[in-house]
Amino acid sequence: MSVVERIRDALTDEASALEALQRRSSDVWEEYRAQLAANQDAIEPPHLAIAEGRVRVAVDASQRRLGFSVMTPVEDGRCELEDLFVEPDSMGLGVGRLLVDDVASRAAAAGASHVDVIANPNALGFYERVGFRARGDVSTRFGRGVRMSLDLSR
After folding, report:
1. Rounded to an integer, what distance in angstroms lies between the CA atom of residue 8 and that of residue 34?
2. Residue 130 CB neighbour total at 10 angstroms
3. pLDDT digits 0-9 by tens, 63-112
4. Residue 86's closest CA among 18, 15, 16?
5. For residue 83, what is the enclosing H or E element?
């Protein structure tokens, strides 16, 4: 059972709170802490994405932010799950899965046939469990990533 009461559009005044959530979520992975500390600009408040209506926030019954997703606009039948972050104490409780389901629904409604994501190696198992399939390795600012795709026609 999930702790999420609902998933809503992000509010313009919560960009800094979402940035802080992203930092806490990213700090879970010890191997990335030093890189993130040395590259503070790697995590930015998602002001533009919020203004464009591309950020969704999962909240609990007390309206506490549990996680958020950022989706790119659909282009040529595809969109990208640009960001997905969950509060460390909410990981493993279904928050990420619900956010992915929300992105998939919104993408399909906008005409997408696939949702793509570039996953860090630590997140591969999660993305596979929610239906993404690996399409190949890519280089990222912080090392190896895996390009994955979710087929929405299934």
Report:
1. 33
2. 18
3. 999 999 999 999 999 999 999 999 999 999 999 999 999 999 999 999 99
4. 18
5. strand 78-86
Long-range Cβ contact pairs of 34-40 (< 8 A, separation 24 or more): 35/142, 39/141
Regarding beta strands 65-71 and 55-59, do their DSSP bridges make them parallel or antiparallel, or are they unpaired? antiparallel
- Domains of the chain: total: 1
Residue type, 120: N
Residue 130 structural domain: 6-151
List the 143-151 sheet strands across, edge first. Answer: 6-9, 55-59, 65-71, 78-86, 114-119, 143-151, 133-140
Q: Maximum Cα–Cα distance for the chain, whole Å?
A: 41
CATH number of the domain at 33, please.
Answer: 3.40.630.30
Does this model's pTM top 0.85? My answer is yes
Enter the tokens of residue 131.
């239906």
Give me 90's structure tokens: 């909410």
